[in-house]
Specification:
alpha/beta, eight-stranded mixed sheet, binds phosphoenolpyruvate, 16 strands, binds magnesium ion
Length: 579
């Protein structure tokens, strides 16, 4: 790879600009950095490689045997390919010769040669070939993990590290943040994936680029431009200097800009207040300032407590956690969403069963109604925290009224127990539901009669309405919350809420999009809840909007037949305002 400046385009899935040095990681955090080794260490490298391959083979054999026992020969056959790959003596011989010739560390040479072998397979039109490439990479990852002595996620990274990898789970992002990573370059995952959401809430820039993983080498200077949506590898001195200046021009950090906001809630040009909330995932860098500015928490994604711990924390741990948030935000509302697990937020084999189609399986409220004890524990912790602030409980992924009834019954039962135990809680704690699947939006009239408030989750509503996985970059072009089908469902829900006198929030990413804000205000949404990074911009923009005028936007937008027609209308309006 050349040292020349190279711009790799992609999509920004978490905004911000950082300047740093790359760390390319494999699944399992294998280090593949290039390290020359003296001749005396070459035999040691070869021996380590042989050992890593032997151990991998032993592991695969065990899995193979277990698969035969549990699932029978036909299923176990899928492991045959991996066994063949791991046991490929010819390939191993070539790698060893190459280590001797190049005098490089075994991991680097092995990885480079595996990549050379898989690139043409990956490009093949034959599915079988592409599957083989995946098998080879998966075996290679196992070998490389062993070669690197296993993964060590506790080690701090060098300052200003930008982590480059194929795909990261929310847990990975958390782990790297702990290790002080400043940004990410990924090849897989959609803009509304939970990986992206957590990166945004932690204010870590992320660029999604299919090619980056292949094109970026380890330990090279890099600029992640999460505003323009590209990565600059090996930037020239002048580019580097320019970006440093641009970063300075971006102004003070977010917390300072939030501090400077004068009127909260912001009011429209004609004097109508629009409530603003923050979407939080874990305690973040801006919490104190948000609280001082009386910006409440419109959505607290408690499931990340599970993800951060890799287990469900007990009642006391949860209670302490929620109490701290409630106290930080004082009188401002804190909406604690009960665990929204399943789908893309948990990998198979954790506490959840493997499912062929997890997005349509045990997710959110459905999962909690199956895992009653986990739900009861969380309900108790949230109720107890409600004694310390303005806490509300939000139930995710509701599809049917029966789920609301069952959840409310459990909440009542836990209230009764807490009373008997003489534990304090707010008797009138509000309980709301998320409307994020079409069935809920279509029956919002009925659902909203049974709850204290509603929050529209446009991220999921979009994926379920358009049948476009929010995580899947192949269908990212279809995933658009401005699709008229999605907007019709949003409006239907808002009207149902208005009819039943139930306050309604939009808490999906749509609430923070400049283009959508006038439309949502026109519909009569009571609160917009968004990532902290969007708050300043949206508050400033609201001041320019005339709430009466935007009501006239709603009809034509809702009647649009295409995303383009919606965008054109909203863009015309925004441009007129910005003039
Ligand atoms: C949503 O679906 O819009 C939402 C806010 O919930 P999450 O993104 O956590 O699924
Ligand atoms: Mg959701």
């Amino acid at each position: 790879m050349s040292d020349r400046e190279q711009i790799i385009s992609g999509v920004s899935i978490s905004s911000g600009i950082v300047l740093g040095t790359t760390r390319v990681v494999m699944p399992g955090d294998v280090q593949v950095s290039e390290e020359p080794v003296p001749a005396s260490r070459v035999p040691g490298e070869i021996e380590a490689l042989e050992k890593a391959v032997e151990e991998t083979l032993a592991e695969l054999r065990e899995v193979h045997q277990a698969a035969i026992r549990k699932m029978g020969g036909p299923v176990a056959k899928i492991f045959d390919a991996q066994l063949l790959i791991a046991g490929d003596r010819e390939f191993l011989k070539t790698v060893k010769a190459e280590i001797e010739r190049r005098r490089m560390n075994a991991g680097f040479v092995y990885h480079a040669m595996v990549q050379k072998a898989v690139v043409p397979l990956k490009r093949s039109p034959e599915r079988y070939m592409r599957q083989t490439a995946q098998d080879i990479e998966s075996v290679a990852a196992k070998v490389l993990v062993r070669l690197s002595g296993g993964s060590d996620l506790s080690k701090r990274l060098p300052p200003n590290t930008v982590v480059v990898g194929k795909t990261f789970s929310p847990n990975d992002i958390l782990a790297y943040r702990e290790r002080k990573a400043i940004g990410f370059i990924v090849s897989e995952g959609g803009t509304e994936s939970h990986m992206a959401l957590i990166a945004r809430s932690l204010m870590l820039p992320v660029i999604l680029s299919e090619d980056a993983w292949r094109l970026v080498s380890n330990n090279v200077p890099v600029i992640v431009d999460g505003v323009a949506g590209h990565v600059i590898v090996n930037p020239s001195e002048s580019t580097w200097g320019e970006y440093q200046r641009r970063k300075r021009r971006l102004g003070p950090p977010l917390v300072t800009r939030i501090k400077k906001l004068t009127k909260i809630p912001p009011v429209t040009a004609d004097g109508v207040p629009v409530h603003i909330g923050a979407n939080l995932t874990l305690p973040g860098p801006a919490d104190e300032i948000l609280a001082q500015q009386h910006i409440g928490v419109g959505l607290y994604r408690t499931e990340f407590l599970y993800l951060a711990n890799s287990a469900f924390p007990d009642e006391e741990v949860q209670y302490e956690h929620y109490r701290r948030i409630a106290e930080t935000f004082g009188d401002s509302p804190v909406v604690l969403r009960t665990f929204d697990l399943g789908g893309d937020k948990l990998s198979n084999g954790d506490d959840f069963p493997a499912e062929d189609n997890p997005a349509l399986g045990l997710r959110g409220m459905r999962a909690m109604l199956e895992m009653r004890d986990v739900f009861r524990t969380q309900v108790r912790a949230i109720l107890r925290a409600s004694a310390h602030g303005n806490v509300r409980m939000l139930l995710p992924m509701i599809t049917d009224i029966s789920e609301v009834e069952r959840a409310k019954k459990i909440i009542s039962q836990e209230k009764l127990k807490l009373r008997q135990e003489k534990k304090k809680f707010a008797e009138d704690m509000q309980v709301g539901i998320m409307i994020e699947v079409p069935s809920a939006a279509m029956t919002a009239e009925t659902l909203t009669r049974r709850v204290d408030f509603v929050s529209i989750g446009t991220n999921d509503l979009t994926q379920y309405t358009l049948a476009a996985d929010r995580m899947n970059s192949h269908v990212a072009h279809l995933y658009n919350a401005l699709h008229p089908a999605v907007l019709n469902l949003v409006y239907k829900t808002v009207r149902a809420c208005q009819g039943n006198n139930v306050p309604v929030t939009v808490c999906g990413e749509l609430a923070g999009q400049r283009l959508a804000v006038p439309l949502l205000i026109g519909m009569g949404v009571d609160m917009l809840s968004m990532a902290p990074a969007r708050i300043v911009d949206v508050c400033r923009f609201i001041k320019k909007i005339d709430s009466t005028l935007v009501r006239h936007l709603v009809g034509p937008v809702i009647a649009s037949g295409t995303v383009q027609a919606v965008v054109d209308r909203l863009r015309d309006y925004r441009e007129a305002l910005e003039k």
